[in-house]
Amino acid sequence: MRSSSTAGFRKLRTCPQSEALMTYCQGAREAAPRDAVAAHAAACDFCGAEAQLLSRFPPLASALPFAAFAIPAGLRRLAEDLLSEPSLNRARFAESILEIERLTLTDA
User: Fold this and answer.
1) Which of 1, 12, 41, 59 is most buried, by CB atoms within 10 Å?
2) How confident is the model at residue 97 (pLDDT cuts 50, 70, 90)?
């Protein structure tokens, strides 16, 4: 697995879905998809870590399918837009909230 900074440790649009990684970890019967997922997991830190997690802690057989946890389209777009911004903006936002709380607590 290649090494990357924590800033690049995320799932990309080109990454296989979690279901494909789970099928790969459980031993897919089709060689072509298994080889493609294996090659991707070896090259992608995030998918490699996810595959390792899924192989060590597989979901329970009684667990709901992944589709049951789908994020509504509007909420997904909002999350993608927020997470696509540079992390510096999120850090400044967090600092602003802490400053507001600090000022609010001292004024009371």
Assistant:
1) 41
2) confident
Residues 6+ apart with CB under 8 A from 8: 45
- State in Å, rounded, how far the first CA of the chain is from the last one: 53
Q: Is 75 exposed, middle or buried (0-12, 13-18, 19+ CB in 10 A)?
A: exposed
Distance, in Å, from the CA atom of 18 to the CA atom of 38, rounded to the nearest integer, reads 13
pTM, rounded to two decimals:
0.48
* pLDDT tops 60 at residue 4: no
| Cα torsion angle, 91, 4, 18, 63, sign | negative
Kindly tell me the sign of the dihedral angle through the C-alpha atoms of 52, 58, 46, 15.
positive
Q: Which two tokens stand for residue 59?
A: 């979901």
On the CB side of 38, CA atoms within 13 Å amount to 11
